[in-house]
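Quick review question:
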């Protein structure tokens, strides 16, 4: 069966999107998702998303990692599916949708290519040695690092993601370095099992962890540079809970086509 697909990217985190409101994809197995996301044998992407109907919401986001496993929340994917919903005419500039971690609100800028996505509140941040571990919709490990540009993110990220603590459920590994009034971040992503150009839940985790690290409270804005561009995180922190968290950045339609499933 031939179905339409759309390719989006948000700061270089790239995704294949399918409009599944009419249930064109009834079930999709792990191997099929992995093949579609393969950069040599498929379309190529860090993940695949289905946009589906959900009563009480504009739509539901169903997210698969590039290895074919159903993922947890994807922040950049969330921003891209909002841009996709606008492209399909489902929404105008604001939306409320359902994802695996719950309800999300989002807003698209007038220019149409900048999406601000509200993330779930976060209360727990744990320590693993000097690193911070928290869940922003997906699980993240955050480690302050020097000379990030020349770091071996693949091998060091792989080793942490596959150590005895994390190998069973996996974790996304973020290395962070101070960069002007914000941070530079590189991420080894679970489910892609490689470094990606950006990770939205990852930079969100970094911004929250760094606020805690620096004993900052109040309303905080954190600009973050990633390999694929620039993202921005805004949130409130009262010393215990992070709330009103917004992940902001570009989301762009790259191309569309047809694929046999
Ligand atoms: N790229 C994502 C994170 C996607 C989820 C993740 N790989 C996982 O399931 O652990 C983002 O932008 O947040």
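Suggested answer, residue by residue:
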């Amino acid at each position: 069966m031939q179905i339409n697909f759309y390719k989006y990217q948000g700061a270089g985190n790239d995704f294949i999107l399918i409009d599944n409101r009419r249930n064109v994809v009834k079930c999709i197995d792990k191997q099929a998702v992995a093949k579609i996301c393969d950069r040599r044998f498929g379309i190529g992407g860090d993940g695949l998303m289905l946009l589906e109907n959900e009563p009480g919401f504009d739509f539901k986001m169903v997210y698969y990692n590039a290895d074919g496993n159903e993922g947890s929340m994807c922040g950049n994917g969330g921003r891209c599916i909002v841009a996709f919903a606008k492209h399909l005419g489902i929404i105008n500039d604001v939306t409320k949708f359902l994802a695996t971690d719950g309800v999300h609100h989002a807003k698209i800028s007038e220019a149409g290519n900048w999406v601000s996505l509200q993330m779930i509140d976060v209360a727990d941040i744990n320590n693993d040695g000097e690193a911070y571990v928290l869940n922003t919709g997906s699980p993240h490990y955050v480690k302050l690092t020097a000379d990030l540009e020349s770091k071996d993110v693949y091998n060091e990220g792989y080793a942490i993601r596959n150590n005895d603590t994390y190998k069973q459920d996996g974790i996304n590994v973020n290395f962070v370095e101070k960069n002007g009034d914000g941070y530079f971040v590189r991420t080894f992503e679970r489910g892609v099992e490689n470094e990606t150009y950006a990770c939205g839940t990852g930079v969100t985790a970094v911004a929250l962890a760094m606020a805690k690290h620096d004993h900052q409270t109040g309303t905080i804005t954190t600009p973050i540079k990633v390999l694929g561009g620039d993202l921005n995180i805004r949130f409130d922190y009262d010393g215990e809970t992070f709330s009103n968290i917004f992940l902001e950045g570009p989301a762009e339609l790259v191309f569309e086509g047809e694929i046999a499933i």
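Why it works: Residues 68 and 225 are 28 Å apart (CA to CA). Helices lie at 30-37, 75-87, 153-161, 200-213.
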